[in-house]
Amino acid sequence: MSDHRPLSPGLRGVLDYGPLAAFLAVFLLLRHQTVHWGGADYPGMIVATLVFVPLTILANAVLWLRTGRLSALQLITLVVVVVFGGLTVWLNDPRFIKMKPTIIYLLLAGLLGLGLALRRNWLGLVLGEVVPMTAEGWRRLTVRMMGLFLALALLNEVIRRTQSDTTWVLFKTVGLMALTFVFLMANMPLIRRHALPQDDDRRR
């Protein structure tokens, strides 16, 4: 018998946003300071990354132990976090952690585009249980999400190259979530228009 069970909303929130919140808190605490350790000086961004990477690994490990699975998106994000976060700390260079959102969004846009080219509903496979829709609805939403990911990748590049570390961190931790929420709200008419009837509706 499996011990896997659904996560409570509270634990799900901690696992999803806890590492990011810790990254933001450590950065804001140390953004004007330098930590001397092991014969080297590390700015606040590097220390925040040093906290963020192991917490992200821990959160995914807990998620896997509790549910028995990790989605493709979670695995992609975990690999990119470990690689680019590790390079950030190892080389003491914040450019790598700043590149992480760009890489993730380009990978996601590429995967969605490949799915469309192969006529595979990969977005529906991930979200279909939560948002049942027609094939045409998933195709339209996939195209829009590709546009979103490409736009966010471009926006991240502009901000990381032209703005301060503080501006980038706020964009990474708060701005991206806000933009994603606005995108989802803007696409609610599409989702409602192509929604499949629920089981309760079918029995009526």
TrEMBL record:
One of its GO terms (cellular component) is plasma membrane. It holds the Pfam family IspA. The keyword Nucleotide-binding does not apply. InterPro entries: YciB. Keywords: Cell inner membrane, Cell membrane, Membrane, Transmembrane, Transmembrane helix. Plays a role in cell envelope biogenesis, maintenance of cell envelope integrity and membrane homeostasis. This is Inner membrane-spanning protein YciB. It comes from Paracoccus contaminans. The gene is yciB.
